[in-house]
Each structure stands twice: as structure tokens, then as C-alpha cells.
Amino acid sequence: xxxxxxxxxxxxxxxxxxxxxxxxxxxxxxxxxxxxxxxxxxxxxxxxxxxxxxxxxxxxxxxxxxxxxxxxxxxxxxxxxxxxxxxxxxxxxxxxxxxxxxxxxxxxxxxxxxxxxxxxxxxxxxxxxxxxxxxxxxxxxxxxxxxxxxxxxxxxxxxxxxxxxxxxxxxxxxxxxxxxxxxxxxxxxxxxxxxxxxxxxxxxxxxxxxxxxxxxxxxxxxxxxxxxxxxxxxxxxxxxxxxxxxxxxxxxxxxxxxxxxxxxxxxxxxxxxxxxxxxxxxxxxxxxxxxxxxxxxxxxxxxxxxxxxxxxxxxxxxxxxxxxxxxxxxxxxxxxxxxxxxxxxxxxxxxxxxxxxxxxxxxxxxxxxxxxxxxxxxxxxxxxxxxxxxxxxxxxxxxxxxxxxxxxxxxxxxxxxxxxxxxxxxxxxxxxxxxxxxxxxxxxxxxxxxxxxxxxxxxxxxxxxxxxxxxxxxxxxxxxxxxxxxxxxxxxxxxxxxxxxxxxxxxxxxxxxxxxxxxxxxxxxxxxxxxxxxxxxxxxxxxxxxxxxxxxxxxxxxxxxxxxxxxxxxxxxxxxxxxxxxxxxxxxxxxxxxxxxxxxxxxxxxxxxxxxxxxxxxxxxxxxxxxxxxxxxxxxxxxxxxxxxxxxxxxxxxxxxxxxxxxxxxxxxxxxxxxxxxxxxxxxxxxxxxx
Amino acid sequence: xxxxxxxxxxxxxxxxxxxxxxxxxxxxxxxxxxxxxxxxxxxxxxxxxxxxxxxxxxxxxxxxxxxxxxxxxxxxxxxxxxxxxxxxxxxxxxxxxxxxxxxxxxxxxxxxxxxxxxxxxxxxxxxxxxxxxxxxxxxxxxxxxxxxxxxxxxxxxxxxxxxxxxxxxxxxxxxxxxxxxxxxxxxxxxxxxxxxxxxxxxxxxxxxxxxxxxxxxxxxxxxxxxxxxxxxxxxxxxxxxxxxxxxxxxxxxxxxxxxxxxxxxxxxxxxxxxxxxxxxxxxxxxxxxxxxxxxxxxxxxxxxxxxxxxxxxxxxxxxxxxxxxxxxxxxxxxxxxxxxxxxxxxxxxxxxxxxxxxxxxxxxxxxxxxxxxxxxxxx
Lengths: 691, 379
What we know:
- The structure holds two protein chains of two kinds.
- By secondary structure, chain A is an alpha/beta fold.
- Chain A has 16 helices and 37 strands.
- In chain A, strands 9, 10, 11, 12, 13, 14 and 25 form a seven-stranded mixed sheet that branches.
- The longest helix of chain A has 20 residues, at about 395-415.
- By secondary structure, chain B is of the alpha/beta class.
- Chain B folds into two domains: about 1-65 and about 150-215 and about 310-365, FAD/NAD(P)-binding domain; about 65-145 and about 215-310, D-Amino Acid Oxidase, Chain A, domain 2 (2-Layer Sandwich).
- Chain B is about 30% helix and about 30% strand.
- Chain B contains nine helices and 18 strands.
- In chain B, the strands form three sheets. In chain B, strands 1, 2, 8, 9, 10, 11, 17 and 18 form an eight-stranded mixed sheet that branches.
- In chain B, a hairpin with a 4-residue loop joins strand 9 and strand 10.
- The chains are: A alpha/beta, B alpha/beta.
- At the A-B interface, helix 15 and strand 37 of A face helix 5, strand 12, helix 7 and strand 16 of B.
- Strand 37 (about 680) of chain A pairs antiparallel with strand 16 of chain B.
């Protein structure tokens, strides 16, 4: 009974439940999955506009899908709530927020005092680092309260349909994030002393050594001996005119809609940002059957792993390096996006504008650590540590390691003795954090007989499952055992395991044994068996996406032992076989820019504070008046006073300060106050969250 | 550098004092350890402005203040969030009704528009208020509210326009009297004929620099603000009844829709701390939701803590203290924001020798050499 805007088949994700319930949105009847987030159900019903702002009537929509920003607020059964964290129930009456909402008049709860409790360690965030730390502490028998605001364990792992990098032995390289999430969630159950609080939000760190936590069954005040902040990261954004239009959102929000809730939220996507998050977001969009019309990156090359960039380039996504987004256009939601080339100072170059028709713009311009709980704890003298992305932005593989180390360190400090942390743990944690290194020169294999792998992975990254999976040990890494480039040394038996496990989809197998004129090239395939069929002629590309000819599909079969991975056998002429790295699925017509570029709004009309709709121009004006205390800037512009508590604009305002040539030393930061997430007053005196 | 007057503190009192002096052409320098105006307790004020006091001197100061706040936008153009929603002190006990009613005649005599209203009338003004046991309350329609922060910056800008100098990020380390005063900060040394102590929580420390003991002891209060919603009630609601752990509490809906609230711990918590505690929200929520159930659905956005620089009798200390030319405008007992513009005018006239008859009445009841034996009924 799925509606149109849902993903009905996905190459990696298993189908979701079939428990459908009815609800209404602005009086219109809709159908959604019971328990999915209200925002997702509304999206599936085809509505992307969640209301209009009281200040200027600007349309509002989903932005972070992560319970942070409040842009998704809807009136649910009479109460304005963040719809991205409210599970859908039968019969819900959902309305858009038009201007200021009116306050619902609902029966009061019975007033009671919140429960106070103590624990050894409170961990904020049940993602890869938090779970790893909890297990390490659980192993030592410490009482742990592991808090997460989502309804399931795993943090962002549950959105990761791609295979992980790193090494098999240390961090399950080659396994998909979604699978890792369920594996470690299962392992965690064995630790009796770890108490998992899901759908629970840490609201404040208090000077009396306690933390306030909103749990579905009410407000709790927890006093831990030690705090561990494993809350991950939030996405940065970029102010450009139209950046608040519905349809412009972070890659994390997109992955939540598409990979967690399987919503077909877009048809045509543009991605801003060539880091791993943006590259993977583009890949996920194609997996979900959407068109990615392009990706813009400000630097000379994508900052993410080259294998990720090559992977999407091969599928036919144009990558515009040294480009930025100038504006998103649209009235109620994004209709097109204009990009332009930038000069060496990142200033747009007039005349280089291109406009693309899109319904979605993913903004993936980096992450910033969620570390405000730690800052408050330090201020109040509560022993606290950071781990995972809260400490340093890196891959989930690294986060699992740093969580483990942190868990061990805390266990040591609680015990008051020092049990050494293995030196190789520390080393591995560092290795797994490594960004992509230099790219080596491509050298075509001259072999035209037998069977052998071709490794299209020429950038040093912390990843080596191809080496450990080869039953004959024929792939070795040169230099560093994890980071070094993999090299094949001869003797291949054609088992194809290296093709199946490579997280970068960067290994092919070429087999000349049957037909030396038209050898078989095996490429990894993660787009489902409905995209190509046997006998079809497909366009093949070399490693970086350049079209080099065509091939014929011989077979497409599941790779045994590698869930959701398929191997595509192509018959290709020997002249190109060794260079074939992938199949193009997007034709160049669908990714071509429009013929004309619409008139561009003034850059300073970009909204910096999306809660209070404060523009870059307003901030600039106050800076030019001489305002240097961010507390004054906030009071006078209202930037940062909104529902999100300044989580977005506090990252954007410093950019404007820099662009005004103001010395950062002249600036006084604004004072941070709780709550970290808006919470109904009644919760503090006994109301339960779902009442 | 020589100034006629140095004001210590750019807060609820110091900034309007400087503004009033500058408007009279006095060359004034303001020193503050914060980085902009109002970064001490001013920004912690919740923004209520009332003339509903029991002490005629305070009523007089407040009526001046009210005039400044209510006409600011017309006169100066800045929106400081003024909203005339009135104040209601509600009663659920005969004892509180008696106490509130007993001071009405004096308040009216001091020029205040205030009267006793029935439970029905209060319920009309605060739709959805708990009617069980509600006996009525006072209502003073001309009281209101404004944004402490925006007001402070507006007063600051006006002071600067009129020639006042502000030096931020400087903490006063010593004040020496002599032919002229020498005020030393970590960055510089300044001279002036007169010095005014407007140091809020630090009034006592600054007084001690010239050998004056100012009985000002801050205690700590927490406050919060919610999300904005469409207006659903107008007045500041004050409940002066006691409950375990707390004395009175009060809340109102700000001009742009947020509800701002505060509670008074009982017994008071002495100190200058600005850190949030886990006690506040459960305590204030329980009382507010009992009184006004629909508030349970309103989302709390932010909480903070500030200090009430208290005096033993709940009345400020204003006037010449210690060496000739040294003045204090301190001990506002948590009412610095609402009293500020009125105090600014009275102090500016005192310093320039232009005190009016009413000023003399005010200054007489707020002088340092009093017994501090009385208590203000509506602290």
C-alpha cells in the first residue's frame, strides 16, 4: 500500500514494515508507517513545505532531520513539535505552522518531582564510538547509562548503506554501516550493567554535577561519576540566497529520509561539497533511484576519498571542482540551483554560472563536533571526555576505535589505577583517522591473458580488506599495512572476493581465459538487479568516469558471503578491458545545465540564522557599526535566539566576521545557556513525552 | 584622561545613569569588565517593569522608568520590546488577599493605577488559569515589560550619541580619593571629579575601595524563556505564596510571544554564581503548571541564572556615600532593570545639583545611613 514518494525497492536496504496507519496533514488524509517519523510520513505524502515563518512568511521545511534545528516543526495533535523525532501514530492530526503557532490547551499532567539517579558513566550518543565505549566499560562491570535521542542504536551507522573502510580485523572493513549497527547493537546486549536509554535527549549539564535527560517516560536527573560525550557531529551549512528553501538540506537529513525511512524525497539532486559525506550522499541517491545532476566542490579536487568520487563519476555524475553554489531558486521549495566557478580566493567568477533544474540540494560542506555538553561539564568541574566525532571528525571506523580507547581510559580512571592501553590501539585509531593521501599515477595493466584483478585504487587511504580477504595472499599493501596502496603480485585464482569486498568498488577482475578477444570483466554492482539485464549493451568507463566504450551484460549475480553485493560480468573488447572500472547509468542529457541562468539575488540576502530569519546583510551591518561582542550581536539581530539555540548560525557568523576583515581576537563569544533541545515545561514536572 | 564623572558598571543602572548625565552635557566615562553594555545581571533580568511597589519612593522611580520605556520607540526609534500588559498579583489564600489589599490605598496615593479584581476578572485576563481556590488579585494595567538587553543597548547608544565614553573589558581595581578621584583598571588609570558606584553584584567590593561598607549581598535566581507562540495572556502573573524551596515566582508573555519566567529560592541562595542548577526547572514547572495548566505544553528554550544584589530591607541605596564626590546607586534587589531609567534621572540630577523635591523624598528613603529595619512587601 506504499504511496508514490516511497522507495519500493532498494539494492541494499531490506523492505520496511507494512504496518500502515492513517493521519491527516492540513486536513488531507495521508498514510504512513506506524512509528516512522512524522516528517518522513508527510514527505511520503508529497508535502515538503512544513509552514511559513512568522517574521517574513518564508517557507519552512525539513533541514537536519536530526532533532537539532527545529525547522521541521509541525503542529501535531495541537502542539508544535519537531516532527523529525515524533513517531507517527494512527489518527494523528498534523498541521503546518503558519506564522506563530497558538498554544494548545490540553489537560495538565499530575505534578510530580523528577526521578534522580546516579551512575558510574553517562554516555551521550549511542553511535559507533558511544557503543564501543559502553562495551569496554560494561566489560569491567561499570554501571553505564547510554543515552541516544533516536529510536534505535547505531547513530549514523544506520544510514550508511556503503561498506566500511579500514581493516577487517579492527573495524569490520568491507561490511556495510547498517549491518555494523545491528552487529554491535547485538553485542551490547550482553553487557548487563549498560542501561540503554533510547529516544532520550540530554537537555542540560548543571553546575551541581548532574545532567537533565528527557526520557519517553519523563524527565530524569542523572549524576554520573564520569561523562563521556559521543554525540557525533552536526552538519555545517553555507549561507546563500535560497538556502532555507524546503528541499535544501544537509546530506545527513537526506540519508535519514532515504536510507532510514526509505522515502523517495527527490527526483533530481544536486550536491554541494565533495567530502566523503557529499560523495556518499550522491551515491545513496543513485542507489535510491534518483538522478544526481552534479556535485560542486570548492577545491581543486574532492576532499573525500578518491574512490568515492570516482565511483559516482563512473555512474555519470559530473563533478564541478573549483565551483560553489550561488543561489537556490524557488518560491515554495527549490526549483533550480545556480553554481559558478570560483577563483583562487573562492570568489565567484562572473560568466561561469550554470543553472540546474533540481528538487533537492544537498549541502555537505563539512561537519562540526557536538561538544557543547563537554564544554559545560568542564566549566562545572564534572569529569568529562570526548570521543568519536565529538572529539575529532573522522570515519566511523576510527570512531569505534576511539570509543574503545576512551572506554578503557575511563575504566582506568574510575578504578584509580592504570591498566595500559595497547599501543597498537592508539596507533590504529590514528591510522583510521587519516584523510586521503596523494594520488599515484594510473598505469594500465599490460597483461592480456589469464585472470587477474585490476586495482583502481591509487590514493593512500586507511583501508585494506582486499589484502586480508585474498585466500592466496596475493594482494599486498606497499608501505603502511593499512594505508599503503594495494598491489597484486600474480597467481590469481579468480575467486572474485577482492571485487566483492572493496568498499571503494575499485577492484575489477579481468578474465581472458575463455575469450581472449572479448574477455569478461567483473565489476561490483550495488544498484539492484533491475537497472541492467542480461544481453544489454552498457556504456563502460575507466576509473575516473571517462567513457571508453561499451560492454555486454553476461550475468548479474549475488556475491556469496557479501550481503547486497552483486557482481556484474561484462563482455568487453580486449583493447579496453583492463581499463574498465564501471558502468555509466546516468546519461549526459539528464545532467546537463539549463540554457539560461535566472537573475541572481543579492548575496547578502542569504539567511544566516534560519530560526529567526536573520540575513548576512543584517549581521554585516551590525559588525560595521562596531559590534564585537557576540552577545550584543545576538541581542540586536536575534541571530541565535531561535529554537535551535544557535547551532547553525554560530558556525556561519564567524565566516562573515572573517570576510569583513575583523581580527577574531576582537570578538567576544556569546554565552551558551541550556537547554540543548527545547522541551515542554510540563515534562519537568511529571508529564511523559508521548502524552 | 580627565572626566567629570566616572561610572563604575555598564549595567541596568550604570548605563542609564551615564545616559542621563550625558544628556545633561556631563563628560562621563563608564568602565565595565564585560565586553558590551548589560553583560552582568542586566541580561539576566526577565524584563518586567512595574510601578506596583509598596514603597512610595520606588513607585516614584518606577513611574519615571515606565515613562522612559513606554515612550522610547516614539522618541528614539529603537524597538525595545515594550508591551503594556499590566501586572496581576494573584491570590489563592485569604492571607495573601489581605496583604495585597492592605497596600492598595498607599499605592493609589503614590499615583499608581491599581485595583483589586475578582477571580472572574483575573480568569478573563489569564485565560485558563486554575480557578480552583482563586480568590482574585490586584491588577495594574499600566505596568508592562520590555527587553532588558535591547533596552540596555538602546540606552548605551543614546549615551554614546550624547558623548559618553564606555571602556569595556576593564575591571576597576582601585579607587583613590584626593583632589580628584583616581580609578585604576588593569589597563589604565583614569581621573574624575566624581565617581558613581553602579557595580551591581560587586557594589560592596567597589564601596570598600573608598572605605564605605555598602550592605549589598547578592543572591542567585534562575530564569527561563520559552518558544514564541501567539499571544494568549497579557499581564505579568505574580504568585507571592510560598512552597517548599521557593517563595514567589512570576511569568509573562514577551512582546514577541515567548513566555519568560523566574522563581525565588527559599531560603535565598547567597552568592554571585551564574551557573544553572538542576533544581530550577522542576521547581518552577511544578508551580507554574499548577497555577496555569496550559503552560505545560509550552516548550522551554533557554534558562539562565542571575543575581539580585539585595539589601537587608529590600530597598536600594542611592546617594552620596563615603568621600565627597563618591556616590552609590546600588542594591537594586533584582529590580535594577525596571528602576534603571528612573534611578538614572535622579542620580544625574543629584550629581549636577538639580535634585527636585520628589528626588529628595526618594533619596531620603534610600540613603545609606538608615536602619535597614523595614521590609518591602512586594520584594
